[in-house]
Write a structure and sequence with these properties.
Strand order of the largest sheet of chain A: 2-3
Oligomer: heterodimer
CATH topology of chain A: MetI-like fold
CATH topology of one domain in chain B: MetI-like fold
Structural class of chain B: mainly alpha
CATH class of chain A: Mainly Alpha
Shape of chain B: globular
Radius of gyration of chain B: 24 Å
Strand content of chain A: under 5%
Number of helices of chain A: 12
Number of strands of chain B: 1
Helix content of chain A: 55-70%
Strand content of chain B: under 5%
CATH class of one domain in chain B: Mainly Alpha
Number of helices of chain B: 13
CATH architecture of one domain in chain B: Orthogonal Bundle
Number of strands of chain A: 3
Largest interface: A-B, 102 and 95 residues
């Protein structure tokens, strides 16, 4: 009845996977939901991105094949696109730097504190995302300790942090840090500590052991964490809206205002579609390396 | 100095954890503030206004209850659908496995703004009225994947011999599922539901696109951010944070107590282990 795919045997432990109609029965309701409300909307998004405005009626569009929507949108908004990738890239790199020591500590040194520390990594998400971002307004304010400190060292080009790109990057780094810590931890935890001991026994320095053993073995976590941080950070517009000035707007801000305020659906759809394509290509590079079974 | 060098990694780890909690401390401290002017961003003087009159500002508690309602409904539906998918992925063979994996992964890898915009494009083209229903539809869609991942991990970590043991002891497939599989997977399902509720309750971007005129708690905060966030919002958010943290810590504590009790039992009476393992 069912054609067996060659890869299926590897997915579960020892329990034999059954071939029966029950499998399809279990899959169909949820997958239908995802198909209708996740996959099909991309088709409507694409069709909307090609629509043409109705003369004299703002917010009204008719089906068309206006490829120029794409070139117009990109000519107008390429700086915001570029800025999104730059800000998200810097935030991802910073998050990796901050997350790695903590993930390493939890995986190898935390002992009986391990479970508690993992809870503490997830716990900040129990407090509202918007309020946590808003709180950075207080922390980075012009009169605050952090701004004064950096000003004392003459490190700030505008003599302030709030309402500059630095604040936006700081907010992005903070908000998506748990998405970097957890995959890193998962990858590090799988490493057999005896490999590091063996390297030590063979007179490798701590640095060499890290560079030749720990880091390469943790790469799957680095890749997963980088994707899970970079992707939401690129599309985010809350940090740019609350912590940046109008000069620091990201592509998410543009999509939101065009869709909801200006009701310029074709432009907003074209920008969303391009953003999605850029991110899908990243995901496919990952899949070519790792396959789909490790994704979920 | 030598102490610091030896414990450098631990010191850095603790500092990172502290960093994660700084903004939450700010939110909590400012809930006891009496702001000067309309923006509650800097300390003025102590006041319990936010806590004693928590529903005092119109819209705060209404939007809070709307978010709770949306969270409960979306979590229930998404947990059932996602758990079914997880069982299918781990226990059954079927055609189209890699496209299934991809369709489950992509919602987690798509920026929220793209999901929000594309779903809004669908509803606009269908002339489907926006409101609580469209928010719930959207939330179920993005929670399902997280439920699948969480429950699947639990199912894969389960010792298959426990189920085989039940079958060896003449339990039918239904009984084995009801008395062995389900209780073992239940913590995973509960965890997935908690995560799902947290995601739904805190979602802003996707909800904002598909809300129409409905104001959820995050949408209320977004609007208030322009004209000044009332202290009551800080108080409510602090309360939610403390309650959620307590729930997770207590469930962790109970879990580890149970494991310890079982380990004790086995160490004192090794025969217990024979009772737990299937006959070969």
């Amino acid at each position: 009845m069912v054609a067996v795919l060659p890869s299926t045997g590897t997915t579960s432990g020892v329990v034999a996977q059954r071939k029966s109609r029950t499998g399809y029965f279990l899959l169909i309701p949820g997958m239908t939901w995802l198909a209708i409300f996740f996959a099909i909307p991309f088709v409507t998004l694409f069709l909307t991105s090609l629509q043409a405005p109705v003369e004299g009626q703002s917010g009204q569009y008719v089906p068309a094949f206006q490829i120029s929507n794409y070139s117009d949108a990109l000519t107008e908004y390429w700086p915001q696109f570029l800025r999104s990738f730059v800000y998200a890239g810097i935030a991802t790199a910073l998050a990796l730097l901050i997350a790695y020591p903590l993930a390493y500590f939890i995986a190898f040194k935390a002992g009986r504190w391990r479970a508690l520390m993992l809870v503490l990594v997830i716990a900040p998400s129990f407090a509202s995302f918007l309020l946590r971002t808003y709180a950075w307004k207080t922390i980075l304010s012009d009169e605050g300790f952090i701004t004064s400190f950096f000003n004392y060292l003459h490190l700030l080009p505008d003599d302030r942090i709030l309402n500059t790109g630095i604040a936006v990057i700081a907010g992005l780094t903070y908000n998506f840090l748990p998405f970097m810590i957890l995959p890193l931890y998962a990858a590090l935890e799988r490493i057999d500590p005896r490999l590091m001991e063996a390297s030590n026994d063979l007179y490798a320095s701590a640095f060499t052991t890290f560079r030749r053993i720990t880091w390469p073995l943790s790469l799957p976590g680095v890749v997963a964490g980088t994707l899970l941080t970079f992707i939401p950070a690129t599309g985010d517009y809350i940090n740019a809206a609350l912590l940046g000035s109008t000069q620091d707007r990201m592509i998410g801000n543009v999509i939101q205002t065009n869709f909801i305020q200006f009701r310029d659906y074709p432009t907003a759809s074209a920008l969303s579609f391009v953003l999605m394509l850029a991110i899908l290509s990243l995901v496919f590079i990952y899949i070519r390396r790792a396959g789909t079974e490790d994704l979920v | 100095m030598r102490w610091i060098r030896r414990h450098l990694l631990g010191v850095v780890a603790v500092l990172v954890l502290v960093y994660l909690f700084i903004p939450i401390a700010v939110v909590a401290v400012l809930s006891f503030n009496k702001p000067e002017g309309k923006y509650n961003t800097s300390w003025n003087r102590f006041s319990l206004d936010g806590w004693t009159n928590i529903c005092g500002v119109p819209g705060v508690c209404d939007s809070f209850m709307i978010s709770v309602r949306i969270g409960i409904v979306s979590t229930l539906v998404a947990t059932v659908l996602g758990t079914m998918i997880a069982f299918a992925l781990v226990r059954y063979r079927f055609r189209g496995r890699s496209s299934t994996n991809l369709l489950i992964f992509l919602p987690m890898a798509t920026p929220e703004v793209v999901m929000g915009a594309s779903l809004l494009a669908l509803f606009l083209n269908l002339r489907f009225p926006l409101g609580e229903i469209t928010i719930v539809i959207a939330h179920i869609m993005f929670i399902i994947s997280f439920v699948v991942v969480t429950v699947k991990a639990r199912l894969q970590g389960m010792d298959p011999r426990l189920e085989e043991a039940a079958r060896d002891l003449y339990a039918g497939p239904r009984a084995a599922f009801r008395y062995v599989t389900l209780p073992l997977v239940a913590p995973g399902i509960a965890g997935a539901a908690l995560l799902g509720f947290a995601l739904s309750f805190d979602d802003f971007i996707i909800s904002f696109f598909n809300a129409g005129t409905v104001v959820t708690f995050p949408i209320y905060i977004w609007g208030a951010a322009q004209r000044g966030i009332p202290v009551q919002v800080n108080a409510l958010a602090t309360l939610v944070f403390v309650v959620a943290l307590l729930i997770v810590l207590i469930s962790q504590f109970i879990g580890s107590r149970r494991r310890k009790a079982l380990a004790n039992e086995i160490s004192q009476n090794p025969a217990t282990i024979d009772a737990l393992l299937p006959k070969s």
